[in-house]
Design brief:
This protein has 599 residues and is an alpha+beta fold. The chain folds into four domains: 55 residues; 107 residues, no CATH class; 265 residues, 3-Layer(aba) Sandwich (Rossmann fold), CATH 3.40.50; 139 residues, Sandwich (Immunoglobulin-like), CATH 2.60.40.1470. The chain contains 15 helices and 24 strands. The chain has a six-stranded antiparallel sheet. The chain has a six-stranded mixed sheet with strand order 9-8-7-10-11-12, sandwiched between helices. Strands 19, 20, 21, 23 and 24 form a five-stranded antiparallel sheet that branches. It is globular and about 95 Å long. The N and C termini lie far apart (100 Å). This is VWA domain-containing protein.
Protein backbone atom coordinates (compact mmCIF):
# COMPACT_ATOMS: atom_id res chain seq x y z
CA UNK A 1 0.00 0.00 0.00
CA UNK A 2 2.87 2.39 0.73
CA UNK A 3 4.11 1.86 -2.72
CA UNK A 4 0.87 2.70 -4.22
CA UNK A 5 0.44 5.86 -2.24
CA UNK A 6 4.03 6.82 -3.53
CA UNK A 7 3.43 6.03 -7.21
CA UNK A 8 -0.03 7.57 -7.40
CA UNK A 9 0.30 10.95 -5.65
CA UNK A 10 -3.02 12.11 -7.16
CA UNK A 11 -4.88 9.62 -4.96
CA UNK A 12 -3.09 10.60 -1.78
CA UNK A 13 -5.35 13.44 -0.80
CA UNK A 14 -8.46 11.34 -1.30
CA UNK A 15 -6.95 8.48 0.67
CA UNK A 16 -6.15 10.89 3.45
CA UNK A 17 -9.79 12.03 3.52
CA UNK A 18 -10.90 8.47 3.64
CA UNK A 19 -8.48 7.75 6.46
CA UNK A 20 -9.63 10.88 8.33
CA UNK A 21 -13.29 9.84 7.96
CA UNK A 22 -12.38 6.32 9.09
CA UNK A 23 -10.64 7.69 12.19
CA UNK A 24 -13.72 9.78 13.03
CA UNK A 25 -15.95 6.72 12.66
CA UNK A 26 -13.61 4.68 14.81
CA UNK A 27 -13.62 7.40 17.45
CA UNK A 28 -17.40 7.61 17.36
CA UNK A 29 -17.69 3.83 17.58
CA UNK A 30 -15.23 3.79 20.47
CA UNK A 31 -17.10 6.54 22.32
CA UNK A 32 -20.42 4.79 21.68
CA UNK A 33 -18.95 1.48 22.79
CA UNK A 34 -17.60 3.04 25.96
CA UNK A 35 -21.02 4.59 26.57
CA UNK A 36 -22.71 1.28 26.10
CA UNK A 37 -20.17 -0.45 28.32
CA UNK A 38 -20.56 2.00 31.19
CA UNK A 39 -24.32 2.08 30.70
CA UNK A 40 -24.50 -1.71 30.84
CA UNK A 41 -22.13 -1.70 33.78
CA UNK A 42 -24.29 0.79 35.66
CA UNK A 43 -27.46 -1.11 34.75
CA UNK A 44 -25.94 -4.42 35.85
CA UNK A 45 -24.79 -2.84 39.11
CA UNK A 46 -28.23 -1.36 39.70
CA UNK A 47 -29.85 -4.72 38.86
CA UNK A 48 -27.49 -6.55 41.15
CA UNK A 49 -28.13 -3.99 43.88
CA UNK A 50 -31.90 -4.27 43.36
CA UNK A 51 -31.69 -8.06 43.42
CA UNK A 52 -29.54 -7.89 46.53
CA UNK A 53 -32.04 -5.60 48.24
CA UNK A 54 -34.88 -7.89 47.17
CA UNK A 55 -33.09 -10.96 48.48
CA UNK A 56 -32.35 -9.22 51.74
CA UNK A 57 -36.08 -8.84 52.36
CA UNK A 58 -36.63 -12.59 51.87
CA UNK A 59 -35.74 -15.43 54.21
CA UNK A 60 -32.37 -16.84 53.22
CA UNK A 61 -31.94 -20.56 52.80
CA UNK A 62 -30.92 -22.21 56.02
CA UNK A 63 -30.26 -25.61 57.44
CA UNK A 64 -32.72 -26.43 60.23
CA UNK A 65 -31.09 -28.14 63.19
CA UNK A 66 -33.77 -29.43 65.53
CA UNK A 67 -32.73 -29.95 69.13
CA UNK A 68 -35.47 -31.82 70.98
CA UNK A 69 -35.42 -31.60 74.76
CA UNK A 70 -37.18 -34.46 76.51
CA UNK A 71 -38.67 -33.46 79.86
CA UNK A 72 -39.40 -36.14 82.44
CA UNK A 73 -41.55 -35.47 85.53
CA UNK A 74 -40.40 -37.25 88.69
CA UNK A 75 -42.10 -37.73 92.04
CA UNK A 76 -39.76 -38.46 94.95
CA UNK A 77 -41.26 -39.65 98.26
CA UNK A 78 -39.98 -41.09 101.52
CA UNK A 79 -40.97 -44.51 102.87
CA UNK A 80 -44.16 -42.99 104.33
CA UNK A 81 -45.24 -41.58 100.97
CA UNK A 82 -44.46 -37.97 101.87
CA UNK A 83 -42.81 -35.81 99.16
CA UNK A 84 -39.06 -35.13 99.46
CA UNK A 85 -38.51 -31.50 98.48
CA UNK A 86 -35.48 -29.26 98.07
CA UNK A 87 -33.43 -31.62 95.90
CA UNK A 88 -31.12 -30.01 93.34
CA UNK A 89 -29.87 -30.99 89.86
CA UNK A 90 -26.74 -32.60 91.26
CA UNK A 91 -28.90 -35.09 93.20
CA UNK A 92 -30.32 -36.64 90.01
CA UNK A 93 -28.93 -39.04 87.44
CA UNK A 94 -31.11 -39.89 84.47
CA UNK A 95 -30.40 -42.81 82.15
CA UNK A 96 -31.81 -43.44 78.68
CA UNK A 97 -31.38 -47.04 77.52
CA UNK A 98 -28.82 -47.48 80.31
CA UNK A 99 -26.67 -44.48 79.29
CA UNK A 100 -26.21 -41.49 81.60
CA UNK A 101 -27.56 -38.24 80.10
CA UNK A 102 -26.53 -34.65 80.75
CA UNK A 103 -29.24 -32.44 82.22
CA UNK A 104 -30.19 -29.47 80.01
CA UNK A 105 -32.83 -28.01 82.29
CA UNK A 106 -34.31 -28.62 85.73
CA UNK A 107 -37.07 -27.18 87.87
CA UNK A 108 -38.95 -28.06 91.04
CA UNK A 109 -42.67 -27.57 91.70
CA UNK A 110 -43.39 -27.06 95.37
CA UNK A 111 -47.03 -26.29 96.09
CA UNK A 112 -47.94 -23.32 93.90
CA UNK A 113 -44.31 -22.22 93.51
CA UNK A 114 -41.98 -23.14 90.65
CA UNK A 115 -38.20 -22.90 91.13
CA UNK A 116 -36.07 -22.83 88.00
CA UNK A 117 -32.41 -23.59 87.42
CA UNK A 118 -29.95 -21.57 85.31
CA UNK A 119 -26.53 -22.55 83.92
CA UNK A 120 -23.57 -21.27 85.92
CA UNK A 121 -21.54 -18.80 83.81
CA UNK A 122 -18.20 -20.39 84.69
CA UNK A 123 -18.90 -24.10 85.04
CA UNK A 124 -22.08 -24.43 82.97
CA UNK A 125 -23.67 -26.60 85.67
CA UNK A 126 -27.29 -25.96 86.59
CA UNK A 127 -27.88 -23.84 89.70
CA UNK A 128 -31.24 -23.30 91.39
CA UNK A 129 -32.77 -19.83 91.67
CA UNK A 130 -33.76 -18.66 95.15
CA UNK A 131 -37.02 -17.00 94.14
CA UNK A 132 -39.92 -18.81 92.46
CA UNK A 133 -41.48 -17.78 89.17
CA UNK A 134 -43.91 -14.88 89.48
CA UNK A 135 -46.40 -16.56 87.11
CA UNK A 136 -46.38 -20.28 86.21
CA UNK A 137 -46.02 -21.04 82.50
CA UNK A 138 -48.35 -23.29 80.49
CA UNK A 139 -45.82 -26.12 80.71
CA UNK A 140 -46.10 -26.44 84.49
CA UNK A 141 -49.89 -26.22 84.69
CA UNK A 142 -51.81 -29.42 85.44
CA UNK A 143 -54.61 -30.58 83.16
CA UNK A 144 -56.63 -33.14 85.14
CA UNK A 145 -59.02 -35.34 83.16
CA UNK A 146 -61.66 -37.28 85.10
CA UNK A 147 -62.56 -40.23 82.88
CA UNK A 148 -65.53 -42.46 83.74
CA UNK A 149 -65.53 -45.66 81.66
CA UNK A 150 -69.23 -46.56 81.54
CA UNK A 151 -68.44 -49.88 79.83
CA UNK A 152 -66.36 -51.07 82.78
CA UNK A 153 -68.07 -49.59 85.87
CA UNK A 154 -71.28 -50.50 87.68
CA UNK A 155 -73.68 -47.50 87.90
CA UNK A 156 -73.80 -47.70 91.71
CA UNK A 157 -70.00 -47.87 91.92
CA UNK A 158 -69.83 -44.84 89.65
CA UNK A 159 -72.09 -42.87 91.98
CA UNK A 160 -70.01 -43.98 94.97
CA UNK A 161 -66.66 -42.93 93.46
CA UNK A 162 -68.04 -39.55 92.34
CA UNK A 163 -69.11 -38.88 95.94
CA UNK A 164 -65.57 -39.68 97.09
CA UNK A 165 -64.11 -37.24 94.52
CA UNK A 166 -65.98 -34.19 95.82
CA UNK A 167 -63.39 -33.07 98.38
CA UNK A 168 -60.52 -33.71 95.97
CA UNK A 169 -62.16 -31.48 93.35
CA UNK A 170 -62.95 -28.73 95.85
CA UNK A 171 -59.38 -28.69 97.22
CA UNK A 172 -57.48 -28.72 93.92
CA UNK A 173 -59.23 -26.16 91.74
CA UNK A 174 -58.71 -23.03 93.78
CA UNK A 175 -56.12 -21.43 91.45
CA UNK A 176 -55.23 -21.20 87.78
CA UNK A 177 -52.49 -23.85 88.18
CA UNK A 178 -54.99 -26.74 87.79
CA UNK A 179 -57.61 -27.15 85.08
CA UNK A 180 -60.15 -29.97 85.12
CA UNK A 181 -62.11 -31.81 82.44
CA UNK A 182 -64.83 -34.49 82.70
CA UNK A 183 -65.13 -37.27 80.11
CA UNK A 184 -67.57 -40.18 80.04
CA UNK A 185 -67.76 -43.27 77.87
CA UNK A 186 -70.90 -45.24 77.17
CA UNK A 187 -71.61 -45.88 73.52
CA UNK A 188 -69.19 -43.10 72.58
CA UNK A 189 -66.81 -40.64 74.19
CA UNK A 190 -68.46 -37.50 75.47
CA UNK A 191 -66.96 -34.28 76.80
CA UNK A 192 -69.27 -33.49 79.70
CA UNK A 193 -67.17 -30.50 80.79
CA UNK A 194 -64.25 -28.93 78.94
CA UNK A 195 -61.16 -27.64 80.72
CA UNK A 196 -62.01 -25.19 83.47
CA UNK A 197 -60.62 -23.93 86.78
CA UNK A 198 -64.14 -23.67 88.23
CA UNK A 199 -64.63 -26.53 90.72
CA UNK A 200 -68.42 -26.04 90.75
CA UNK A 201 -68.60 -26.76 87.01
CA UNK A 202 -66.50 -29.91 87.42
CA UNK A 203 -68.70 -31.12 90.27
CA UNK A 204 -71.85 -30.43 88.25
CA UNK A 205 -70.42 -32.38 85.30
CA UNK A 206 -69.58 -35.32 87.57
CA UNK A 207 -73.14 -35.25 88.85
CA UNK A 208 -74.41 -35.40 85.26
CA UNK A 209 -72.25 -38.47 84.67
CA UNK A 210 -73.78 -40.23 87.68
CA UNK A 211 -77.25 -39.59 86.25
CA UNK A 212 -76.47 -40.77 82.72
CA UNK A 213 -78.53 -43.75 81.58
CA UNK A 214 -76.55 -46.80 80.61
CA UNK A 215 -77.12 -50.32 79.36
CA UNK A 216 -74.46 -51.56 81.77
CA UNK A 217 -77.06 -53.30 83.95
CA UNK A 218 -78.33 -55.33 80.99
CA UNK A 219 -74.79 -56.31 80.08
CA UNK A 220 -74.09 -57.32 83.67
CA UNK A 221 -77.26 -59.42 83.76
CA UNK A 222 -76.22 -61.25 80.56
CA UNK A 223 -72.77 -61.92 81.98
CA UNK A 224 -74.18 -63.09 85.30
CA UNK A 225 -76.54 -65.51 83.56
CA UNK A 226 -73.62 -67.06 81.69
CA UNK A 227 -71.55 -67.37 84.84
CA UNK A 228 -74.42 -68.94 86.77
CA UNK A 229 -74.88 -71.45 83.93
CA UNK A 230 -71.20 -72.35 84.13
CA UNK A 231 -71.46 -72.73 87.91
CA UNK A 232 -74.53 -74.93 87.58
CA UNK A 233 -72.90 -77.24 85.04
CA UNK A 234 -69.77 -77.60 87.15
CA UNK A 235 -71.65 -78.19 90.42
CA UNK A 236 -73.95 -80.81 88.93
CA UNK A 237 -71.29 -82.65 86.93
CA UNK A 238 -70.30 -86.22 87.77
CA UNK A 239 -67.49 -88.40 86.56
CA UNK A 240 -69.65 -90.03 83.89
CA UNK A 241 -70.35 -86.89 81.85
CA UNK A 242 -67.39 -84.79 82.95
CA UNK A 243 -65.86 -84.60 79.48
CA UNK A 244 -69.10 -83.42 77.92
CA UNK A 245 -69.65 -80.87 80.69
CA UNK A 246 -66.11 -79.57 80.22
CA UNK A 247 -66.85 -78.73 76.58
CA UNK A 248 -70.19 -77.14 77.52
CA UNK A 249 -68.52 -75.08 80.24
CA UNK A 250 -65.77 -74.02 77.83
CA UNK A 251 -68.33 -72.95 75.21
CA UNK A 252 -70.19 -70.84 77.76
CA UNK A 253 -66.89 -69.39 78.95
CA UNK A 254 -66.04 -68.39 75.38
CA UNK A 255 -69.42 -66.67 75.01
CA UNK A 256 -68.86 -64.73 78.20
CA UNK A 257 -65.30 -63.79 77.21
CA UNK A 258 -66.54 -62.58 73.82
CA UNK A 259 -68.79 -60.05 75.60
CA UNK A 260 -65.93 -58.97 77.85
CA UNK A 261 -63.43 -58.73 75.00
CA UNK A 262 -65.72 -56.55 72.87
CA UNK A 263 -66.16 -54.10 75.76
CA UNK A 264 -62.45 -54.18 76.56
CA UNK A 265 -61.46 -53.37 72.97
CA UNK A 266 -64.03 -50.57 72.85
CA UNK A 267 -62.63 -49.15 76.10
CA UNK A 268 -59.03 -49.31 74.85
CA UNK A 269 -59.96 -47.81 71.49
CA UNK A 270 -61.74 -44.92 73.20
CA UNK A 271 -58.88 -44.41 75.64
CA UNK A 272 -56.44 -44.27 72.74
CA UNK A 273 -58.62 -41.66 71.02
CA UNK A 274 -58.62 -39.56 74.18
CA UNK A 275 -54.82 -39.80 74.43
CA UNK A 276 -54.50 -38.61 70.83
CA UNK A 277 -56.83 -35.71 71.53
CA UNK A 278 -54.78 -34.65 74.55
CA UNK A 279 -51.53 -34.78 72.57
CA UNK A 280 -51.79 -31.18 71.35
CA UNK A 281 -52.58 -29.70 74.77
CA UNK A 282 -49.62 -28.15 76.63
CA UNK A 283 -48.65 -28.90 80.21
CA UNK A 284 -48.89 -32.01 82.36
CA UNK A 285 -51.88 -34.20 81.71
CA UNK A 286 -53.19 -36.21 84.68
CA UNK A 287 -55.71 -38.81 83.49
CA UNK A 288 -57.80 -40.17 86.37
CA UNK A 289 -59.37 -43.34 84.96
CA UNK A 290 -62.28 -44.89 86.91
CA UNK A 291 -63.69 -48.39 86.40
CA UNK A 292 -64.41 -51.69 88.16
CA UNK A 293 -61.16 -53.08 86.82
CA UNK A 294 -59.62 -53.61 83.42
CA UNK A 295 -57.94 -56.97 82.77
CA UNK A 296 -55.14 -57.31 80.25
CA UNK A 297 -56.65 -60.69 79.38
CA UNK A 298 -60.45 -60.98 79.75
CA UNK A 299 -60.32 -64.80 79.44
CA UNK A 300 -57.64 -65.62 81.98
CA UNK A 301 -59.76 -65.55 85.14
CA UNK A 302 -62.68 -67.58 83.81
CA UNK A 303 -60.58 -70.10 81.89
CA UNK A 304 -58.44 -70.62 85.00
CA UNK A 305 -61.61 -71.43 86.92
CA UNK A 306 -62.70 -73.95 84.27
CA UNK A 307 -59.28 -75.62 84.47
CA UNK A 308 -59.56 -75.85 88.25
CA UNK A 309 -62.96 -77.56 87.92
CA UNK A 310 -61.71 -79.89 85.19
CA UNK A 311 -58.00 -80.62 85.78
CA UNK A 312 -57.88 -82.83 82.69
CA UNK A 313 -58.69 -79.78 80.51
CA UNK A 314 -56.33 -77.16 79.12
CA UNK A 315 -58.54 -74.09 78.82
CA UNK A 316 -55.93 -71.66 80.12
CA UNK A 317 -53.68 -72.27 77.11
CA UNK A 318 -56.49 -70.98 74.89
CA UNK A 319 -56.81 -67.83 76.97
CA UNK A 320 -53.65 -66.43 75.36
CA UNK A 321 -55.69 -65.80 72.21
CA UNK A 322 -57.45 -63.02 74.12
CA UNK A 323 -54.39 -61.33 75.62
CA UNK A 324 -54.40 -57.57 74.95
CA UNK A 325 -51.19 -56.58 76.78
CA UNK A 326 -49.74 -55.25 73.52
CA UNK A 327 -52.62 -52.77 73.15
CA UNK A 328 -52.14 -51.57 76.72
CA UNK A 329 -48.43 -51.06 76.03
CA UNK A 330 -49.16 -49.10 72.87
CA UNK A 331 -51.42 -46.76 74.82
CA UNK A 332 -48.90 -46.19 77.62
CA UNK A 333 -46.15 -45.53 75.06
CA UNK A 334 -48.33 -42.86 73.46
CA UNK A 335 -49.11 -41.41 76.88
CA UNK A 336 -45.42 -41.10 77.63
CA UNK A 337 -44.85 -39.41 74.27
CA UNK A 338 -47.52 -36.82 75.15
CA UNK A 339 -46.67 -36.28 78.84
CA UNK A 340 -49.80 -38.02 80.14
CA UNK A 341 -49.70 -39.85 83.48
CA UNK A 342 -52.54 -42.29 84.21
CA UNK A 343 -53.93 -42.60 87.73
CA UNK A 344 -56.37 -45.51 87.93
CA UNK A 345 -59.13 -46.07 90.48
CA UNK A 346 -60.95 -49.39 90.93
CA UNK A 347 -64.38 -48.37 92.20
CA UNK A 348 -65.21 -51.91 93.41
CA UNK A 349 -63.04 -51.57 96.49
CA UNK A 350 -61.87 -54.72 98.27
CA UNK A 351 -62.40 -58.22 96.81
CA UNK A 352 -65.66 -59.82 97.92
CA UNK A 353 -67.98 -62.54 96.66
CA UNK A 354 -70.13 -59.77 95.17
CA UNK A 355 -69.55 -56.35 93.68
CA UNK A 356 -69.29 -53.35 95.98
CA UNK A 357 -72.56 -52.03 94.59
CA UNK A 358 -74.33 -55.32 95.26
CA UNK A 359 -73.14 -55.28 98.86
CA UNK A 360 -74.83 -51.99 99.40
CA UNK A 361 -78.13 -53.23 97.99
CA UNK A 362 -77.80 -56.64 99.69
CA UNK A 363 -78.47 -58.23 96.31
CA UNK A 364 -76.13 -61.13 95.59
CA UNK A 365 -75.99 -61.79 91.87
CA UNK A 366 -73.33 -64.44 92.22
CA UNK A 367 -73.64 -68.18 92.52
CA UNK A 368 -72.17 -69.53 95.75
CA UNK A 369 -71.02 -72.79 94.09
CA UNK A 370 -67.32 -72.71 93.41
CA UNK A 371 -67.20 -68.94 93.68
CA UNK A 372 -66.49 -68.31 90.00
CA UNK A 373 -67.71 -64.73 90.43
CA UNK A 374 -65.24 -63.88 93.14
CA UNK A 375 -63.34 -60.86 91.86
CA UNK A 376 -59.64 -61.67 91.59
CA UNK A 377 -57.53 -58.52 91.83
CA UNK A 378 -54.64 -60.16 90.03
CA UNK A 379 -56.80 -60.38 86.90
CA UNK A 380 -59.17 -57.40 87.14
CA UNK A 381 -56.50 -54.93 88.22
CA UNK A 382 -53.76 -56.07 85.84
CA UNK A 383 -54.55 -53.42 83.22
CA UNK A 384 -55.01 -50.68 85.82
CA UNK A 385 -51.65 -51.42 87.43
CA UNK A 386 -49.85 -51.67 84.08
CA UNK A 387 -51.10 -48.28 82.84
CA UNK A 388 -50.24 -46.52 86.10
CA UNK A 389 -46.78 -48.06 86.48
CA UNK A 390 -45.72 -47.45 82.87
CA UNK A 391 -46.73 -43.77 82.83
CA UNK A 392 -45.47 -42.73 86.27
CA UNK A 393 -48.97 -42.60 87.73
CA UNK A 394 -50.57 -44.46 90.61
CA UNK A 395 -53.08 -47.32 90.85
CA UNK A 396 -55.71 -47.08 93.62
CA UNK A 397 -56.99 -50.65 93.87
CA UNK A 398 -58.25 -53.01 96.60
CA UNK A 399 -59.26 -50.10 98.82
CA UNK A 400 -62.70 -49.24 100.18
CA UNK A 401 -61.28 -45.93 101.35
CA UNK A 402 -59.91 -44.27 98.21
CA UNK A 403 -59.37 -40.93 99.98
CA UNK A 404 -55.85 -42.05 100.91
CA UNK A 405 -55.05 -42.67 97.25
CA UNK A 406 -56.58 -39.34 96.24
CA UNK A 407 -54.32 -37.62 98.77
CA UNK A 408 -51.33 -39.19 97.02
CA UNK A 409 -52.57 -37.87 93.68
CA UNK A 410 -52.97 -34.43 95.23
CA UNK A 411 -49.36 -34.50 96.46
CA UNK A 412 -48.21 -35.57 93.00
CA UNK A 413 -49.83 -32.44 91.56
CA UNK A 414 -48.15 -30.14 94.07
CA UNK A 415 -44.67 -31.65 94.50
CA UNK A 416 -42.49 -32.96 91.69
CA UNK A 417 -39.30 -32.36 89.72
CA UNK A 418 -38.85 -31.94 85.97
CA UNK A 419 -35.62 -33.07 84.31
CA UNK A 420 -34.78 -32.19 80.70
CA UNK A 421 -32.16 -33.78 78.46
CA UNK A 422 -31.38 -34.04 74.76
CA UNK A 423 -31.50 -37.61 73.54
CA UNK A 424 -28.56 -38.72 71.38
CA UNK A 425 -30.90 -41.18 69.67
CA UNK A 426 -32.66 -39.47 66.75
CA UNK A 427 -34.79 -42.46 65.72
CA UNK A 428 -38.41 -41.41 66.32
CA UNK A 429 -39.66 -44.98 65.97
CA UNK A 430 -37.58 -46.32 68.85
CA UNK A 431 -38.99 -46.73 72.33
CA UNK A 432 -36.35 -45.66 74.87
CA UNK A 433 -36.23 -46.85 78.48
CA UNK A 434 -35.95 -44.34 81.33
CA UNK A 435 -34.32 -44.81 84.72
CA UNK A 436 -33.70 -42.18 87.40
CA UNK A 437 -31.41 -42.52 90.41
CA UNK A 438 -30.99 -40.20 93.38
CA UNK A 439 -27.57 -39.66 94.91
CA UNK A 440 -26.30 -37.74 97.92
CA UNK A 441 -29.25 -38.32 100.29
CA UNK A 442 -29.26 -40.78 103.18
CA UNK A 443 -32.98 -41.31 103.77
CA UNK A 444 -34.95 -44.06 102.03
CA UNK A 445 -36.82 -42.86 99.00
CA UNK A 446 -39.14 -44.01 96.24
CA UNK A 447 -39.05 -42.62 92.70
CA UNK A 448 -42.13 -42.60 90.49
CA UNK A 449 -41.37 -41.91 86.83
CA UNK A 450 -42.55 -43.11 83.43
CA UNK A 451 -40.64 -46.19 82.36
CA UNK A 452 -40.16 -45.36 78.70
CA UNK A 453 -40.98 -42.86 76.02
CA UNK A 454 -41.06 -42.52 72.26
CA UNK A 455 -40.55 -39.35 70.23
CA UNK A 456 -43.30 -38.53 67.76
CA UNK A 457 -42.83 -36.37 64.69
CA UNK A 458 -45.16 -33.43 64.07
CA UNK A 459 -46.68 -35.36 61.18
CA UNK A 460 -47.44 -38.35 63.42
CA UNK A 461 -49.08 -36.08 65.99
CA UNK A 462 -51.35 -34.53 63.35
CA UNK A 463 -52.29 -37.94 61.95
CA UNK A 464 -53.10 -39.16 65.46
CA UNK A 465 -55.30 -36.13 66.07
CA UNK A 466 -57.17 -36.49 62.76
CA UNK A 467 -57.92 -40.16 63.51
CA UNK A 468 -58.93 -39.59 67.12
CA UNK A 469 -61.41 -36.84 66.27
CA UNK A 470 -63.44 -39.31 64.30
CA UNK A 471 -64.48 -40.57 67.74
CA UNK A 472 -63.92 -37.46 69.80
CA UNK A 473 -65.06 -34.45 67.82
CA UNK A 474 -63.49 -31.07 68.55
CA UNK A 475 -62.87 -28.35 65.96
CA UNK A 476 -59.71 -26.25 66.31
CA UNK A 477 -59.50 -23.85 63.40
CA UNK A 478 -56.88 -21.06 63.55
CA UNK A 479 -56.62 -20.98 59.73
CA UNK A 480 -60.42 -20.44 59.47
CA UNK A 481 -60.86 -23.12 56.82
CA UNK A 482 -64.23 -24.41 55.62
CA UNK A 483 -65.24 -27.41 53.54
CA UNK A 484 -68.07 -28.66 51.34
CA UNK A 485 -68.83 -32.17 50.09
CA UNK A 486 -69.95 -32.78 46.50
CA UNK A 487 -71.00 -36.10 44.99
CA UNK A 488 -72.95 -37.38 42.00
CA UNK A 489 -75.18 -40.34 42.83
CA UNK A 490 -75.69 -40.94 39.10
CA UNK A 491 -71.98 -41.69 38.58
CA UNK A 492 -71.98 -44.81 40.70
CA UNK A 493 -69.37 -47.32 39.50
CA UNK A 494 -69.68 -51.05 38.94
CA UNK A 495 -68.47 -51.75 42.48
CA UNK A 496 -71.26 -49.44 43.78
CA UNK A 497 -68.83 -46.71 44.83
CA UNK A 498 -69.74 -43.05 44.48
CA UNK A 499 -67.10 -40.42 43.56
CA UNK A 500 -66.90 -37.79 46.30
CA UNK A 501 -65.11 -34.44 46.22
CA UNK A 502 -64.30 -32.48 49.37
CA UNK A 503 -63.63 -28.86 48.50
CA UNK A 504 -61.60 -27.08 51.16
CA UNK A 505 -61.54 -23.28 51.25
CA UNK A 506 -58.45 -21.75 52.86
CA UNK A 507 -58.29 -17.96 53.47
CA UNK A 508 -54.94 -16.91 52.00
CA UNK A 509 -54.58 -14.08 54.51
CA UNK A 510 -54.06 -16.80 57.15
CA UNK A 511 -51.39 -18.66 55.14
CA UNK A 512 -47.70 -17.69 55.16
CA UNK A 513 -46.70 -16.53 51.65
CA UNK A 514 -43.09 -15.67 50.79
CA UNK A 515 -42.13 -13.56 47.79
CA UNK A 516 -39.74 -15.27 45.40
CA UNK A 517 -39.08 -13.44 42.16
CA UNK A 518 -42.32 -12.40 40.51
CA UNK A 519 -44.60 -14.55 42.66
CA UNK A 520 -45.55 -15.38 46.20
CA UNK A 521 -45.18 -18.96 47.33
CA UNK A 522 -46.64 -21.02 50.17
CA UNK A 523 -47.24 -24.65 51.02
CA UNK A 524 -50.02 -26.54 52.78
CA UNK A 525 -50.34 -30.12 54.01
CA UNK A 526 -53.79 -31.71 53.97
CA UNK A 527 -54.67 -34.75 56.11
CA UNK A 528 -57.96 -36.65 55.74
CA UNK A 529 -59.74 -39.68 57.16
CA UNK A 530 -63.34 -40.89 57.28
CA UNK A 531 -65.51 -43.17 59.43
CA UNK A 532 -68.69 -44.93 58.30
CA UNK A 533 -71.83 -45.77 60.29
CA UNK A 534 -70.29 -49.06 61.49
CA UNK A 535 -67.21 -47.31 62.92
CA UNK A 536 -64.98 -48.56 60.11
CA UNK A 537 -62.13 -46.07 59.70
CA UNK A 538 -59.99 -45.32 56.67
CA UNK A 539 -56.24 -44.68 56.95
CA UNK A 540 -55.14 -41.07 57.33
CA UNK A 541 -53.96 -39.76 53.96
CA UNK A 542 -51.54 -36.85 53.59
CA UNK A 543 -51.24 -34.55 50.56
CA UNK A 544 -48.76 -31.71 50.05
CA UNK A 545 -49.67 -28.78 47.81
CA UNK A 546 -47.62 -25.76 46.67
CA UNK A 547 -49.38 -22.38 46.42
CA UNK A 548 -48.12 -19.91 43.78
CA UNK A 549 -49.61 -16.41 43.47
CA UNK A 550 -48.40 -13.98 40.73
CA UNK A 551 -47.10 -10.73 42.19
CA UNK A 552 -49.76 -8.61 40.44
CA UNK A 553 -52.53 -10.76 41.98
CA UNK A 554 -51.16 -10.80 45.54
CA UNK A 555 -53.36 -8.09 47.08
CA UNK A 556 -56.51 -9.53 45.55
CA UNK A 557 -55.52 -13.03 46.63
CA UNK A 558 -55.26 -11.97 50.28
CA UNK A 559 -58.97 -11.22 50.21
CA UNK A 560 -59.81 -14.59 48.68
CA UNK A 561 -60.14 -18.25 49.67
CA UNK A 562 -57.76 -20.75 48.11
CA UNK A 563 -59.64 -23.89 47.00
CA UNK A 564 -58.19 -27.37 47.39
CA UNK A 565 -60.04 -30.54 46.43
CA UNK A 566 -59.71 -33.99 48.00
CA UNK A 567 -61.24 -36.76 45.92
CA UNK A 568 -62.25 -40.28 46.98
CA UNK A 569 -64.74 -43.08 46.25
CA UNK A 570 -67.06 -44.47 48.93
CA UNK A 571 -69.96 -46.86 49.35
CA UNK A 572 -73.39 -45.30 50.02
CA UNK A 573 -73.54 -44.65 53.78
CA UNK A 574 -73.40 -41.95 56.43
CA UNK A 575 -69.87 -40.69 57.02
CA UNK A 576 -67.95 -38.57 59.46
CA UNK A 577 -65.12 -36.67 57.77
CA UNK A 578 -62.04 -35.52 59.68
CA UNK A 579 -59.66 -33.05 58.04
CA UNK A 580 -56.52 -31.18 59.00
CA UNK A 581 -54.77 -28.41 57.08
CA UNK A 582 -51.30 -27.33 58.16
CA UNK A 583 -49.37 -24.28 56.98
CA UNK A 584 -45.93 -25.77 56.31
CA UNK A 585 -44.07 -22.50 56.89
CA UNK A 586 -45.52 -21.39 60.25
CA UNK A 587 -46.77 -24.84 61.40
CA UNK A 588 -50.30 -23.62 62.25
CA UNK A 589 -52.84 -26.41 61.83
CA UNK A 590 -56.64 -26.49 61.65
CA UNK A 591 -58.76 -29.55 62.52
CA UNK A 592 -62.40 -29.80 61.42
CA UNK A 593 -64.98 -32.60 61.37
CA UNK A 594 -68.38 -32.79 59.69
CA UNK A 595 -71.00 -35.41 58.76
CA UNK A 596 -72.49 -36.20 55.38
CA UNK A 597 -74.76 -38.95 54.08
CA UNK A 598 -73.69 -40.26 50.67
CA UNK A 599 -76.44 -42.12 48.81
Amino acid sequence: MIKAFGIFPEHFSSEVKIMNITRKKIALVLVFSLFLFFNLLLNSQEAAKKEQNQESTLPKPYVKIEVVITNIDIMVTDKFGEPITGLRPEHFEIYEDGKLQKLKNFYEVKGLDVYLSVPDKETGTLKMTEKPLEEPTEDVKNRIIFYFDGLQIHPLNKTWVIKKLENFIKNNFTSSVNEGMVISLDRELKVVQGFTTDSSKILQAAKEVSQQSSDMMLKLKSREDLKEDINRIIENADDFDKSENYERSLDLARNYVQYAENDLLHSLKSLDSLVNYLSGIPGRKILVYMSDGLPTNPAEELFTYVDQAYPQGNALSRAMDYDETRLFKEITTRCNAHNIAIYTINAMGLDTTMTTADQRTQFNLYSKGFGVMRSQSRFQNSGLTLMADDTGGLAIVNANNIETGLKKIEKSLQNYYSLGFSSPNKDNNKTRSIKVEIKGIKQDYNVRVRRNYKLLSDEEKIEDTVMSRLFFRTNVNPLKISAQVFFDEFRISDDKQIPVSIKIFIPLKNVTLIQKGNEYQGQIEVFSSIKDSKDNVSPCYKMVHDIRIPEQDYKVALESNYPYVVEMKVQPDSYLFSLAVRDTYNQNASFVQFEKTIK
